[in-house]
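stage 2 :: seqdesign
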């Protein structure tokens, strides 16, 4: 990732201290600001201020990550989607769907890739058949149903 004035995606680059704060929170999202401050060389108040700025900028989120199976969401799938025309309206419509956990515009075999999390197979079928395939511009979909989740992590650091 570029560390100059802007990141590759056009957002502001983070300085070394902000990157260290993000790494601390990726290890433990409930870590006290005082402990983070000690680790990165800032006061508790300065850490609080930086975290608030990172949240406001959209540089990070602090959330509870659940195992979908334990909260009754028994079916997950990745969908490859091909679109005719402008990708943006389709991507925006997908991003608005509650069941869509992840949506990206891609280069390659698919125009869009989305991850959907559903209650069961019937729910997944309804989402794909009645809501995604009927979106204007959607030409085709290919489903990759998850059989077993081997790894799910959000602690990739700030490389």
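stage 2 :: out
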């Amino acid at each position: 990732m570029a560390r100059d004035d802007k990141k590759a995606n056009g957002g502001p680059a983070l300085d070394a201290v902000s990157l260290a704060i993000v790494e601390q929170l990726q290890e433990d999202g409930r870590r006290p600001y005082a402990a983070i401050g000690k680790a990165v060389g800032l006061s508790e108040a300065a850490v609080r201020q930086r975290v608030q700025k990172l949240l406001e900028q959209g540089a990070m989120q602090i959330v509870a990550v659940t195992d979908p199976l334990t909260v009754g969401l028994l079916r997950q799938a990745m969908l490859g989607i091909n679109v005719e025309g402008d990708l943006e309206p389709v991507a925006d419509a997908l991003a608005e769907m509650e069941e869509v956990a992840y949506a990206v515009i891609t280069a390659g075999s698919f125009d869009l890739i989305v991850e959907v999390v559903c209650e069961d197979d019937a729910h997944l079928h309804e989402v794909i058949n009645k809501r995604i395939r009927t979106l204007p511009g959607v030409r085709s979909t290919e489903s990759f149903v998850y059989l077993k989740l081997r790894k799910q992590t959000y602690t990739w650091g700030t490389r």
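stage 3 :: structure notes
- The longest strand covers residues 75-83.
- The CA atoms of residues 38 and 136 lie 53 Å apart.
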